[in-house]
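Q: Here's a chain of 72 amino acids. Please give me its 3D structure as tokens.
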Amino acid sequence: MSKTPSDQPQNLEDELLAEYSFDYQKAKPNRFAVRNETQKLTVVVLDEDVAQVFKTPESVNKVLRALIESMP
């Protein structure tokens, strides 16, 4: 009869580490995850002087939408 995991002696090397190093460059998207194509987010880094004026994403979007409407 084969041994069950509880019958085997505990190995200290099998314990979880406090921290793991993960190389995100080699990561692949989860092909089984549901993809929500309705909203795509784009991250834009603002310069410090601009970020002091626009404190929330809503304020940035409001101004940019007004600018888009005023463009020919």
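Q: Can you summarize the key feature?
A: Residues 53 and 59 are 9 Å apart (CA to CA).
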